[in-house]
Amino acid sequence: MTASATAPAPIAFIDLAAQRARIGARIDAAVARVLQSCRFVNGPEVTQFEEQLAAFAGAKYAVSCSSGTDALALILMAWGVKPGDAVFCPAFTFCATAEVVPYLGATPVFVDVDADTFNMDPESLTQAIAVAIEQGLTPRVVIPVDLFGQPADYDALLPIAEAHGLKVLCDTAQGFGGTWNNRRTGSIGDATATSFFPAKPLGCYGDGGAILTDDADLVAVLKSLREHGQGIDKYQNVRIGMTARLDTIQAAVLLEKLAVFEEEIAAREKVARRYNDLLKDVCQVPAVDARATSVWAQYTIRLAPGRRDALADALKAEGIPTAVYYRLPMHLQPAYKHYPAAGAILPACEMLAEEVISLPMHPDLDEATQDRIVGAVRRALAA
């Protein structure tokens, strides 16, 4: 018998093929309709998707766009963020959250997170605001991130923002579909940005994003900005904009995925609860605030420092992938370490960067496959 014959079958970290097997025929038909119509830009599916997305989130308006990063940038552009302004971002997040701030010449100011939820720490935000003022910056916007699927602590963050006159831009690229006090992400704060990158809980077949808000005036500016700053038509330019449209094929894909999204959120919750039950005695499993529900974009456990790489190697040998989000917090990244932060050390971010590791998570993760993952984790941690 060859070595390859005895090697364990690999497991998908995020199994998009399993989802496609369930709804692929519907998506193929939706895409075929777009191909038949040849309305590849601004086709009717785009408007239809925006309407359904807003209704799902409980927001008045949705403005689709080309990526989650562009969604963040468009909002900051519409609010007139400029040099001298401070925009507060958690340091434990993907770079896109802070990346858009220097686009406009503004200054990202990094905030620590809560070690249990991985989300922005309200006390650290207050400290970061004081640092920004001391450095002569004007506090303008705070960007809470709904990391790994769980909404940030908006009960604590929104009053701080209001007290300091900050706009609240909710980055729910990983958390869209979650709830805070029974409100969907997308209906909290002044505006919300989300991403439809394929690996997201609600993902398309390429890049895509959206903005959700109740502000009609903001929507008018956003729609102009995403079309080169157009006025009465595309040949009148009333502001500096960009090209940031969601293409019609991606809108068609997302309409079909949105139709099953509630079912997939429930399936993700079932997988996460089972992981917690089976692993809580061997590692620190993720905690969800009692006021929140998560969409479990990632299932992330914590280990004592120095144990993570051995676990990853052991699981890889059994055909089980893992990922680390994130090995280096934003305030320590080479491109961002010269920007201010709430303190010289952000202790929770720096601790988490040494401890976190994510296991396979998706709505089609069956119990037999999950048992294989759990068994491998338990064996590795017992060694």
TrEMBL record:
A Gene Ontology molecular-function term?
Answer: transaminase activity
Q: Which organism is it from?
A: Xanthobacter tagetidis
UniProt similarity note: Belongs to the DegT/DnrJ/EryC1 family.
The superkingdom of the source organism is Bacteria
Q: Is Membrane one of the keywords?
A: no
Tell me the PANTHER family matching this sequence: TRANSAMINASE, UDP-2-ACETAMIDO-2-DEOXY-3-OXO-D-GLUCURONATE AMINOTRANSFERASE
What's an example Gene Ontology biological process for this entry?
polysaccharide biosynthetic process
Write out the entry's keywords from A to Z: Aminotransferase, Pyridoxal phosphate, Transferase
| Full protein name | DegT/DnrJ/EryC1/StrS family aminotransferase
Q: What are the N6-(pyridoxal phosphate)lysine sites (modified residues) in this protein?
A: 200
CDD domains given for it? AHBA_syn
Enzyme active site: 200 (proton acceptor)
Q: Which InterPro entries match?
A: DegT/StrS_aminotransferase, PyrdxlP-dep_Trfase, PyrdxlP-dep_Trfase_major, PyrdxlP-dep_Trfase_small
A Pfam family this chain is assigned to: DegT_DnrJ_EryC1
